UniProtKB/TrEMBL annotation, chain A:
GO terms for molecular function: DNA binding. The keyword Transmembrane does not apply. It is found in: Nucleus. One of its GO terms (cellular component) is nuclear lumen. This is Replication protein A 14 kDa subunit A. Keywords: Nucleus. GO terms for biological process: DNA recombination; DNA repair; DNA replication. PANTHER family: REPLICATION PROTEIN A 14 KDA SUBUNIT A-RELATED. It comes from the Eukaryota. Belongs to the replication factor A protein 3 family.
UniProtKB/TrEMBL annotation, chain B:
Residues 20-36 have a biased composition (Polar residues). GO terms for biological process: DNA replication; double-strand break repair via homologous recombination; nucleotide-excision repair. One of its GO terms (molecular function) is single-stranded DNA binding. This is Replication protein A, subunit RPA32, putative isoform 4. Residues 1-37 are annotated as: Disordered. Gene3D superfamilies: Nucleic acid-binding proteins, Winged helix-like DNA-binding domain superfamily/Winged helix DNA-binding domain. The keyword Cell cycle does not apply. Pfam families: RPA_C. One of its GO terms (cellular component) is DNA replication factor A complex.
Amino acid sequence: MDVSSPAAFVNGGLIRMHVGRKVRTVLQATRSDIASVIGKSTDGYQLVAKGSPPVPLTSYVEVIGVAENENTIRAELWTNFGDTFGMLFYSI
Amino acid sequence: MQSNEFDGNAAFSGGGFMPSQATQTTPDRPSSASKNSDARCLLPLTVKQLVDLSRGGESDISIEGVDVNNIVLVGKVSKIDNAVSECTFRVDDGTGWVECTKWVHEHLDSVEVDAISVGMYVRVYGQLKSIHSRRTVHTFSIRPVTDYNEITNHFIECIYVHFYNTKMRGCINTQPGMTNSVSGMTAQPQVANSNFGDPGKGYSYEANQTSQYNNDEEQIRALSSMVLQYLRQPACIAFEMGVSSVVVARELNISVDKVRQTLDFLASEGLVYTTTDDYFKFTDA
């Protein structure tokens, strides 16, 4: 990630405006497996992040990657945000 | 070397501790308070703001009219270059990246830099440097972020400071009729003061060198505008005796005490005058 392609902060409602571009968001993980994480975005949408999630995975995880469509992100970078996080304020 | 004649200006120019007459910038610069090191502020910035900084002012770098010296950044470390006496971190906050250099002289410095690894979110306090138009940060302190709400908090702070600085500047330059209810920003040397010199324009702001205005003053300004607007109505001007403060309070739904306080203030500014006891009229200048 560099200045030429900064990642836009998105939520479930905004991701459709950035399909094909680099985005970042925080998901509240509801289900995870070896190749993807399904989670809730800051505005309550269900999103899927594909890639290699960190192990162990915390409740909240930041995902930076390319938006494939309006509810899927092909993740390049994952960051565990812990088990307590202010999703409502991140959405602002 | 001492001159033969006693030169008051030279004697009291500060002996090198204060800018001399020759090096002072133009007196109408609103940010003159920032030349005083006590008034230098710590600005929360995003990397994009940092990269977009314009040149100007005594410290050579300014943003939104405020001289930039010390800054705070929060971002992810994407690269670390470890040398013998310094460590350079590439900090990326999603709006861009910047290199932050921390000089390692003591054991505490090495402990600090050893705690940082690639992929970690960090908070950086440092001084902005510009070398051949490339921005870098001379880092005073860099520490890992443990509570990720700090990231959200930092961005909200950047937004707030940006609006505070630009809104105040907008008020000074182009918005004579605008009221501003933003409370004082302790990190900034720029604070507005209301100027009631021209009643026809309503509010206009001029920069002030102090930063001690409290919420009471902001409230008085807001109330003054409301009361003045009410008294300027043709119906009120038509009353030869003026309007009683009780009537103003009732019409505007404000307490009588506050209205009286506001009217006294407006009278001292010359915008209203008393006709008889407790009756006020707009000064139709």
